[in-house]
Structure formats: structure tokens, C-alpha cells
Design goal:
With about 425 residues, this protein is α/β, with parallel strands linked by helices. The chain contains 14 helices and 18 strands. Among the domains are: about 70 residues; about 200 residues, Vaccinia Virus protein VP39 (Rossmann fold). The longest helix has 22 residues. Bound molecules: S-adenosylmethionine (SAM).
């Protein structure tokens, strides 16, 4: 993608072509879902577009079809916005999910922010969320093409009045001074991939925060100037990165851990050091678990024998070190001090913070015994889950060779003490 292409895609001809191609793609996927196996065909899409606009520049047609492909890929992450904006592979890879960006923007608004400096705005998905929450945004992006796309995107979303996109390096002192001049809040989502190093066709992840762009020490300096600052970070960050008085938040969406964020004190609910936000499409609002103490100061939860239920905490709680929260909620215990399975006899459902399974049988793991138990129960289909054991769930499921039967079960494999155990369960 180059600036000329952004301009061409944003021109009236480009927009018309993109709209027609997006509508055609939606129709093709609807026909495919209704059982037409030939409906989704790139060649047919090109022919259709050529027929619609015989004089369209072939290069523009190719770019439009790339956008259509990216829009389709973006839909689970960005929802309805995907069909309005322009994307790149790399920009989409790094874009914040709409639901998560909106929750963050609402936190900024609730903390009294009115004007956010978004330093490294990418395609502008967080900037757009801040604007949807009614905040003004100065969005800085050093890559000129990405900045042009962000400018296009905020306009396409009807938010151009609230968002100003500035092209430049946010770490340059003069540009930073200008970006922060009117801002009473800052947000940084550093690039954590190295575009010049590729593996399997994707840019390589950068794990060292000092090598993120902008780098973490610089983010901390911004926070020293603008106390209402938060930054999106990799979910695997060490808990010690959380600044004094600040809070680290891990967020999952429908069971998938999608991001972590570090907030400085003015964006932190009083006394909260660690938090998980679990978004589930089955629930009207996100479930939140939090703790006022650092993970190192956490009192270890009790450990004991398996009860009627096993609960598997959501990954956002596991990363936040909030398994003890689930233990406390269900008056439970851990199966093993180092394994994130909670067990209890109390009939308390804390979903979506944890998924609950009813335990029918517990045994030291032995494939033949497990198979005999499942066959006796009329189980023909199993989902195998595991924690802290080298057993491979796919191999176990295959080696069980269950005969055809209508029953189903969940088999949980976990190391307890030194040995693997198997728990035959049904989902709640
Ligand atoms: C992770 S992406 C931001 C994604 C964005 N939050 C979204 O949801 O669309 C980080 C962006 O920061 C930009 N960037 C990296 N270093 C920068 C710097 N020093 N100044 C300005 N932008 C920078 C990169 O080009 C990249 O587009």
C-alpha cells in the first residue's frame, strides 16, 4: 500500500468500487452459507467487478479485492466497523478489538479525560473508540501510509470532527510537546512486531518492552507528564511492570485472551493492582475480577481433594494471577498448588469468569481404565482438556478409540502432585 493507493481507494470511484465489491462478497458468503460451494470464488468476484465498472483501473480492482479480503478477516475483531474502513495486514494484526477499545475509552471518560493523545495510533481503532466516547483525540502515527489510512478511517466512521491525525514520530520532543499541549490524557499502544523480520509470512513479535516502538521507558516518561496514561501491552508482561499505584488489566473476549493494559494511578480504580475483564457475547456486561495486592503478596489458595465441580478459570484471570478470586467465590480449593483448576462442592456458577464442569469420576490417569470408564458410561465423544501434564489431548482422544455411542463427556487431565489424573466430567 502507498499514499497513491490510499487516495485512489478514498476517491469517489474507489469508494463505489469498494462498496460494490463488499456487497458482492457479502452476497457470495451468504450463498456459500446456504449451501452453494462455488459461491466464493475470487475469479468470479473480479469478473463481477469488471462487468460493473468496465473502465476501472485493474490495479484499483486488485486493491479493492484485497480490502474486501481484509474486511472479511477483520469482522470478528472489529464488527460492523470493518465494512467501513481501510485496512492493511499489519494494521489489522495490531488493531484493538472494538469491544475492548470501547471499554477502555469509557474508562478514560469516567476518569475525567476530555482530550487524549494517542501516540502511535495505527489504523485509528482506539482513537475512534475514544471519539465514540465523546473525547477529542490527537492521534500521532509515524508511518505516512498508516496515518493516511487512520485519517480516512476516522472520517469514514463520522468522527473526523473529534480526531486530528498527525503524521510524525511521537518520540520527537517538539512533536510530543505539540501533541500533549491540549491533552489531559495519553494512550500508547506500542508496536510489538518487527516488520523487517518475517517468520512464516508474519512480522516477528518483539518481547523486550525496551525494544517496542515507542519503547517502554519513553511510555513511562509520558505518564510522568500526563498522569492519566495507559498503555496496551503484551499479555505475557511481567507483573512487576505495573507502576506504583497503577493497575494491570488482562482482557479476554469469548474465552480468548486478547490484550493486557497497564494504567497509571489516575486511570486506576482506587486500590486495584490487578484486574481481569472477561467479555462474553452471552453476557450483557463484562465480568470483572480484581485484587488490591500484588501477585507476590497473594495468600496462596487452599488445596484439597476433588469435589463435585471443577472450574477452569478464564485465561484473563490466570494471567492476572486471580485464580484465588475464583477459589474464594466458590468457597473452593485448588486440585494442586501449581495448577489452575479449582474444585468445590458448592453449586456456584461464576461464568464467564470460569467454566464449570460436573465431575463424575476421578482416577489416576491410565488410558485403559479411562477408556473402560467412558465406554461403561456410553460415551462416544470426548473433549479432552489438560493442564500441567505433558499428555497430548489430541493423542489421548485418538488413542481412546471409543466405540460409537451417543454420550459425550469432557475429560480433564491434570498433574496433581507428581502424577497425572483424569477427571471424567460433563460441561455445566
Ligand atoms: C500497535 S499499533 C497501534 C494500533 C492502534 N491502537 C489500533 O487499535 O488501531 C502501533 C502503531 O504505532 C506506530 N508507531 C510506532 N512507533 C511510533 C512512534 N515513535 N511515533 C509514532 N508512531 C509510532 C506504528 O507505526 C504502529 O502503526
Amino acid at each position: 500500500m502507498d499514499l497513491e493507493t490510499v487516495a485512489a481507494l478514498g476517491s469517489p470511484a474507489g469508494r463505489a468500487l469498494l462498496e460494490a465489491a463488499t456487497a458482492y462478497d457479502d452476497g457470495a458468503h451468504a450463498r456459500a452459507a446456504a449451501g452453494d460451494p462455488t459461491a466464493v470464488d475470487p475469479l468470479k468476484a473480479v469478473t463481477h467487478l469488471r462487468r460493473q465498472q468496465p473502465y476501472a483501473d485493474p490495479r484499483l480492482v486488485a486493491e479493492v479485492l484485497t480490502q474486501v479480503r481484509l474486511r472479511r478477516r477483520a469482522r470478528p475483531r472489529l464488527g460492523g466497523l470493518a465494512r467501513l474502513i481501510l485496512l492493511t495486514d499489519d494494521g489489522l494484526e495490531q488493531a484493538t478489538r472494538t469491544v475492548v477499545a470501547d471499554l477502555r475509552a469509557q474508562r478514560y471518560a469516567a476518569a475525567g479525560a476530555t482530550h487524549v493523545a494517542d501516540l502511535g495510533c495505527g489504523l485509528g481503532l482506539d482513537a475512534a473508540a475514544f471519539a465514540r466516547a465523546g473525547l477529542r483525540v490527537t492521534a500521532v502515527e509515524r508511518d505516512p501510509v498508516t496515518a493516511a489510512l487512520a485519517t480516512h478511517n476516522v472520517a469514514a466512521l463520522g468522527l473526523a470532527d473529534l480526531v486530528t491525525v498527525v503524521t510524525g514520530d511521537a518520540t520527537e520532543a517538539a512533536l510530543l510537546d505539540a501533541a500533549l499541549r491540549d491533552a489531559d490524557a495519553a494512550y500508547v499502544d506500542p508496536a510489538r512486531r518487527n516488520p523487517s523480520a518475517q517468520r512464516d509470512g508474519r512480522s516477528v513479535r518483539v518481547t523486550n518492552p525496551e525494544l517496542w516502538s515507542p519503547p517502554w521507558p519513553w511510555v513511562s516518561q509520558v505518564a510522568a507528564r500526563i498522569p492519566r496514561t495507559a498503555a496496551k501491552v503484551a499479555p505475557g508482561i511481567p507483573h512487576e511492570m505495573t507502576p506504583p499505584g497503577g493497575c494491570a488489566t488482562w482482557t479476554s473476549v469469548d474465552g480468548q485472551l486478547v490484550e493486557a493494559e497497564i494504567a497509571w494511578p489516575e486511570l486506576t480504580p482506587p486500590g486495584t493492582r490487578r484486574r481481569s475483564i472477561v467479555v462474553s457475547s452471552a453476557a450483557a456486561r463484562p465480568a470483572v475480577a480484581e485484587s488490591a495486592v500484588d501477585l507476590v503478596d497473594e495468600t496462596p489458595p487452599p488445596v484439597g481433594p476433588v469435589g463435585r465441580w471443577i472450574l477452569e478459570p478464564d485465561d484473563a484471570l490466570i494471567r492476572a494471577g486471580l485464580v484465588a478470586h475464583v477459589v474464594a467465590q466458590v468457597d473452593g480449593r485448588l486440585l494442586d498448588p501449581h495448577v489452575a483448576y479449582v474444585t468445590t462442592d458448592a453449586d456456584i456458577d461464576v461464568s464467564p469468569l470460569a467454566t464449570r464442569f460436573e465431575v463424575h469420576h476421578a482416577m489416576p490417569y491410565d488410558l485403559a481404565h479411562l477408556r473402560a470408564d467412558l465406554v461403561a458410561r456410553g460415551v462416544g465423544h470426548v473433549v479432552v482438556k489438560k493442564r500441567a501434564t505433558s499428555l497430548d489431548p489430541d493423542v489421548v482422544r485418538r488413542d481412546l478409540k471409543l466405540p460409537r455411542a451417543s454420550g459425550s463427556a469432557v475429560v480433564i487431565l491434570a498433574r496433581v502432585g507428581d502424577d497425572p489424573w483424569a477427571y471424567v466430567c460433563t460441561p455445566d
